[in-house]
Design goal:
homodimer, 203 residues, mainly alpha, 12 helices, 2 strands
Chain lengths: 203, 203
């Protein structure tokens, strides 16, 4: 070593190991295709895109004075467990049966790479996102539902058609958007209505 | 329309148009390859990964009380101009000659899709990042330099070897890391040293 490092290398090495590990999120592919339909979207891109939605659309959150940093932190980490657990399609009811157990095991392995304080912080962010009990989690969850809707609409219903999804299913699975943003839920319903009109989605 | 929307649809439509447009960042490929060397990394994934570095490594910033939300906002938007301007490899001195002009034109087209207040906000974030005059911009820029270093190191010098990069060039191009974080710069130098030792990087 050329340098004598006075920083806590053990701590930094754990952080770097985690940063290297989570590169794998770029290999977790979702059912959603990109806007030009050239390929499926991966979780890392999706997490970036959601963060942009949060940044641009927070004015529509039901609650005022949202802590936007908290929203974005949750979004950035919300899919990390899928590195081990895989992506569960929102309309896959069977996949949802053991989703929590698969994701818990993943969180245990992946988050534990970090120093303990940060491992706890990431776990708490993930728990907050999953439980949807705070204004920030409800809004983060709302944009997580809205973004695939946009992708489906602008790709003429690509994933909807592929999986035989109906407008009733879309409205039922996405109605929690209203808990984060009544305005974005109105907009989402308008998208679903237009999608049916244009033949992108079965009634 | 089934719903009478009392929200400002003109504003929301501009925001959605922008959100759809920036999906193209997922198609802008960088020189860096993923940790498993299976393919090049794209800008959207890179922006997500950098945000995670910022979230986990802010304790190493030179300045205390960093506004982490500001750091992450800059990171999320810093590569949007590359949708039009393309990625300029950090060691491509010729590409850097007209980089600013290409990116200015891109910012003008892309950011202007947004409502004016948000267009201004994104432009100011981008300017702040580029100028590196604030503590937040210096730290955001530091992680933007550190992440490709990690990718190069853990892929045994993939992009370095491909482009005939030497350790002197790496140290010169990345020394601004020290302006954001002296600690991370020490760590980066250690990586460069180890990379030379292991034959990943020419001396």
């Amino acid at each position: 070593m050329i340098l004598s490092l006075d920083l806590n290398m053990e701590r930094l090495e754990k952080q770097i190991e985690f940063i290297v590990e989570i590169d794998k999120l770029k290999h977790v592919y979702r059912q959603t295709v990109l806007m030009d339909r050239s390929r499926n979207e991966n979780d890392a891109e999706h997490s970036w895109h959601l963060s942009m939605l949060a940044l641009l659309l927070s004015e529509y959150a039901n609650e005022e004075n949202l802590n936007l940093l908290q929203v974005i932190k949750m979004i950035l980490i919300h899919d990390l467990v899928e590195i081990d657990a895989g992506d569960t399609f929102v309309y896959d009811d069977k996949g949802y049966e053991d989703k929590r157990a698969r994701e818990e095991a993943a969180a245990e392995r992946i988050f534990r790479i970090l120093p303990e304080d940060q491992s706890e912080e990431i776990y708490e962010l993930w728990e907050e996102f999953e439980k949807r009990e705070t204004a920030e989690a409800r809004f983060a969850s709302a944009v997580d539902r809205l973004q695939p809707l946009l992708h489906n609409y602008y790709t003429k219903g690509h994933a909807w058609k592929k999986h035989g999804i109906t407008s009733e299913m879309v409205l039922d699975k996405n109605k929690t958007i209203a808990e984060g943003s009544k305005d974005l839920w109105k907009f989402a319903q308008k998208i679903v209505h237009n999608a049916v009109e244009k033949g992108y989605l079965e009634k």
